[in-house]
Amino acid sequence: MESRHLFTFLEVVEAGSFTRAAQKLDYAQSSITAQIQALEQELGQPLFDRIGKKIVLTDAGRRLLPYARQIMRMHSMAEEDLRAHSAVSGLLRIGAPESLAAFRLPGIISEYRSKFPQVEIILKPGSCWELREMSRSGEMDLSFLLQEEFSDKDLHVETLIHEEMALVAPVGHRLSNGIQVSPDDLRNETILHTETGCSYRLLFERYLNASGVYPDPKLEFWSIEAIKQCVMAGLGLSLLPLVTVRKELEEGRLARLLWDDSTHRVATQMAFHHKKWRSPALEAFLETTRKHAGLWRQDKISV
């Protein structure tokens, strides 16, 4: 049963004649007649008695009338609801590791919320492998990842910036003398690590191990802020994304050691399922992110 046939049926009932309904809808009268006949044929019974120039609803027509009105009301409600939500609104589920959630996303979210306050954002923390899986399953609308650059057959992956890494130490540490630090220099140092499975931790450990260096003891933390505080307190050294320690380096509360990070740099990437519908809300967030990423790449950190 086509909705346009029901709409025409209601217009004929309201107008009281095929001619007046055709004039109101700006249709040819033959088109109105054809639509009513198609509806009658589908239902298997006449809807109008045509007596002279008058039309009168049959018993079937009277029974159909309330259902037709209800169907058209629901049709209008559905159109209005979808039209309203075609604007930038709704819910975005975004995943990110703690380092990006704390040091890359606040500026993006702040600008986005100022432009699109109707959008609800749920920010979920997680490791990169967890976030990749949630993006593949559709649990996340968008995931931010901090890891070696990768591609995935199920995901659209976009690299935003290659993150510079910083080996940081307490101010006045014996290695903070401006001389290039080698893996062997770290042999007897305590390394403060992020959680097991962290991409840049794995790259750093692999690099040290390849040189026969296995720092011990190791301390493991889930919080970058905790690591920074412990380094400042003299508990050890740590390799962290430069963006996460920039403020402390500029303020002289941490020392950056001269360290070649080229073999264990990671990339900040965003990923979402390539079959996912890009809602207006998601498209706007992607564009806001790309804008900020352009500014990150222009920002030359000198500390």
Automatic annotation (TrEMBL):
Q: Which Pfam families match?
A: HTH_1 (PF00126), LysR_substrate (PF03466)
Q: Name one GO molecular function term.
A: DNA-binding transcription factor activity
- Domain HTH lysR-type: start-end pairs: 1-58
Q: Which InterPro entries match?
A: LysR_HTH_N, LysR_subst-bd, WH-like_DNA-bd_sf, WH_DNA-bd_sf
Identify the species of origin. Paenibacillus stellifer
Entry keywords, A to Z: DNA-binding, Transcription, Transcription regulation
Keyword Transcription recorded: yes
Write out the similarity annotation. Answer: Belongs to the LysR transcriptional regulatory family.
Q: What top-level branch of life does the organism fall under?
A: Bacteria
CDD domains named among the record's database cross-references: PBP2_LTTR_substrate (cd05466)
Annotated Gene3D superfamilies: 3.40.190.290, Winged helix-like DNA-binding domain superfamily/Winged helix DNA-binding domain (1.10.10.10)
What is this protein called in UniProt? Transcriptional regulator
